[in-house]
């Protein structure tokens, strides 16, 4: 089969590989029906993910059909349409029992697919620990609707959940890329009184405004004043930092009201400074970390009920044989690209 493969820093290529086989009792083989390119794939290509293994098939955003299962797989059956979780977790260790599945102690715990083991930018993928890593797609939910459930929607849902958004809150989202918009979509499930999106790119602000007309839009240069004008207590009650830009962490705490929650979703490539003397007296609560991707079934229920729809994020679709062109489009944000779907 053709598989998009990480060869070395700066180089991916389509290669012929054998189809994956069941290796462990909790494995499942999934025929990939739709995949997507993630910014994390670009980080691998740039050499910024030290744990990524040369020779692996990349890709961790995918949906498909179960083709085979190991003897200990009970959560899904052959023929089920499924989402694939970006994280691998055992469901049994201390961290998994607490819901902190990002820190699962299993050897494959955390981000394995498309990083440490073969991922899903290919016709087939082996999913280890499939009882936790696969979720059945409800009848009536399309592949496109379910495509982001295992990764960026799981991230947005987790971030909104740990931020404890209430109905009287003003929520500020920093960043209107795909992850930021998924975070906004999930924050709106909590029915805050107001949602504000800060994004430096005018095209992405316009895209976000079309997708979420109920949210207010602003640019970074005036976000502090804009948030003060559009909140009840001098700042946002909850700030979700999804941009990961040079100054976005500083904007996050500056735009928060006293005793607010600042949830850092973004992954930075440089250390961030926590200027405690400057923020003394604001009594902020910071929450950070990698997604605990254990909410996929709940996300699928929201999609099935019509309360969550991220299909507008899919702006382009390419066949697997043209994936080099798809990466070029996505990496350079050409033609208004937000998310690029890949059909194996």
From TrEMBL:
This is Alcohol dehydrogenase catalytic domain-containing protein. Residues 25-130 form the Alcohol dehydrogenase-like N-terminal domain. Residues 180-287 form the Alcohol dehydrogenase-like C-terminal domain. It holds the Pfam family ADH_zinc_N. Belongs to the zinc-containing alcohol dehydrogenase family. GO terms for molecular function: oxidoreductase activity; zinc ion binding. The keyword Electron transport does not apply. Its cofactor is Zn(2+). Keywords: Metal-binding, Oxidoreductase, Zinc. InterPro entries: ADH-like_C, ADH-like_N, ADH_Zn_CS, GroES-like_sf, NAD(P)-bd_dom_sf. It comes from the Bacteria. SUPFAM superfamilies: GroES-like (SSF50129), NAD(P)-binding Rossmann-fold domains (SSF51735).
């Amino acid at each position: 089969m053709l598989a998009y493969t990480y060869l070395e820093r700066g180089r991916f290529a389509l290669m012929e590989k054998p189809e994956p086989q069941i290796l462990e009792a909790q494995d499942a083989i999934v025929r990939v029906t739709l995949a997507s390119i993630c910014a994390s794939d670009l980080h691998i290509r740039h050499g910024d993910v030290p744990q990524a293994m040369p020779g692996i098939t990349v890709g961790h955003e995918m949906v498909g059909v179960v083709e085979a299962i190991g003897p200990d797989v009970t959560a899904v059956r052959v023929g089920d349409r499924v989402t694939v979780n970006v994280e691998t977790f055992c469901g049994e260790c201390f961290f998994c029992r607490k819901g902190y599945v990002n820190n699962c102690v299993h050897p494959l715990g955390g981000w394995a697919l498309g990083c440490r083991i073969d991922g899903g930018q290919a016709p087939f993928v082996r999913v280890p620990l499939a009882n936790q890593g696969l979720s059945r797609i409800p009848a009536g939910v399309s592949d496109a609707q379910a495509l982001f459930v295992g990764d960026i929607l799981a991230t947005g849902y987790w971030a909104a959940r740990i931020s404890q958004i209430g109905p009287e809150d003003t929520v500020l989202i920093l960043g209107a890329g795909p992850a930021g918009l998924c975070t906004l979509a999930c924050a709106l499930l909590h029915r805050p009184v107001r949602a504000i999106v800060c994004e430096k790119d005018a095209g992405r602000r316009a895209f976000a405004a079309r997708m979420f007309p109920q949210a207010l839009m602003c640019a970074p240069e005036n976000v502090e004043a804009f948030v003060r004008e559009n909140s009840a207590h001098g700042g946002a009650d909850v700030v979700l930092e999804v941009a990961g830009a040079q100054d976005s962490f500083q904007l996050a705490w500056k735009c928060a009201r006293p005793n607010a929650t600042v949830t850092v979703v973004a992954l930075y490539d440089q250390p961030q400074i926590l200027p405690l003397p400057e923020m003394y007296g604001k009594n902020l609560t910071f929450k950070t970390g990698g997604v605990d991707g254990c909410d996929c079934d709940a996300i699928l229920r929201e999609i099935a009920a019509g309360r969550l729809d991220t299909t507008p994020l899919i702006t382009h679709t390419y066949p697997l044989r043209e994936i080099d062109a798809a990466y070029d489009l996505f990496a350079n944000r050409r033609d208004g690209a937000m998310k690029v779907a890949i059909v194996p």
